[in-house]
Amino acid sequence: MFGDISPRYHPLTPETVPAYIRTRKELEAVFRPEDALEAVEVGDGNLNLVFKVWAKADPRRTVVLKQALPYVRLVGDSWPLPTDRARIEAQALEIHGRLVPQHTPRVYFYDADMYLVCMQNLIDHIIMRKGLIQGIKYPHFAEHIGLFMARTLGMTSDLVLDYRAKKVEVARFINPELCKITEDLIFTEPYRQTERNRFHAELEPQVVALQADTGLHLEVAQLKEKFMTQAQALVHGDLHTGSIMVNQTDTYVIDPEFAYYGPMGFDVGAVIGNLLLNYAAHEVRTTDPEKRADFRTYLTDTIIQVWQVFVREFQPIWDRADVIDMPRLYQQDYMRRVLQDTVGFGACKMMRRVIGLAGVEDIRGIESVKDRTTAASLALNIAVSMVKARHHITRIEEVVEMATAARPSM
Amino acid sequence: MFGDISPRYHPLTPETVPAYIRTRKELEAVFRPEDALEAVEVGDGNLNLVFKVWAKADPRRTVVLKQALPYVRLVGDSWPLPTDRARIEAQALEIHGRLVPQHTPRVYFYDADMYLVCMQNLIDHIIMRKGLIQGIKYPHFAEHIGLFMARTLGMTSDLVLDYRAKKVEVARFINPELCKITEDLIFTEPYRQTERNRFHAELEPQVVALQADTGLHLEVAQLKEKFMTQAQALVHGDLHTGSIMVNQTDTYVIDPEFAYYGPMGFDVGAVIGNLLLNYAAHEVRTTDPEKRADFRTYLTDTIIQVWQVFVREFQPIWDRADVIDMPRLYQQDYMRRVLQDTVGFGACKMMRRVIGLAGVEDIRGIESVKDRTTAASLALNIAVSMVKARHHITRIEEVVEMATAARPSM
Question: In A, which residues are within 8 Å of B329 by CB distance?
Answer without folding.
Answer: 214-215, 217-218
